[in-house]
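Example record

One chain of 168 residues, shown exactly as stored in the release files.
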Amino acid sequence: MDEIKGGVVPREYIPAVETGIVEAMKTGILHGFPMVDLRVSLIDGKFHAVDSSELAFHICGSIAFKEGSAKCGPKLLEPMMAIEVVTPTEYVGDVIGGLQQRRAQVKNIESRTDTVQVVAADVPLSEMFGYTTALRSATQGRAVQSMQFSHYAEVPKEIQEKIVGKKD
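Predicted structure tokens for this chain:
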């Protein structure tokens, strides 16, 4: 967003600043992951008749974005999946235990009949690889699951440190 007052940055250079910021957002500052859902304002700048160019303002926008982002304490996000597991009642404990080992948050357990229950949970996508095989093993092949994208959530700090390789 352009909040320049008094013409300290000529209008023809403002798109170059925006392009630099957008380019920097694509690689972010956390291990090359893109940055999303943010707002940037250009509030001040300097212009020099000899040294100023579109490239200079492009680079300046990129550098300013990276420096400002580092000060904001960005967080890594991960896709969360809504999962429903339909299982015979005798395996509900095994299903819940298996989901909790995968960092799931169980939201609901619903009885469909006297012998069948549905476990609903949110779970990180990264934890779900191999889950169908584990579910079949835990329930003797009698449970089924369906999964769909739900939302993004912040990665826990200890896992973010492993991914990014950064210790505070």
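Notes: The beta strands are 77-88, 105-111, 116-124, 144-154.
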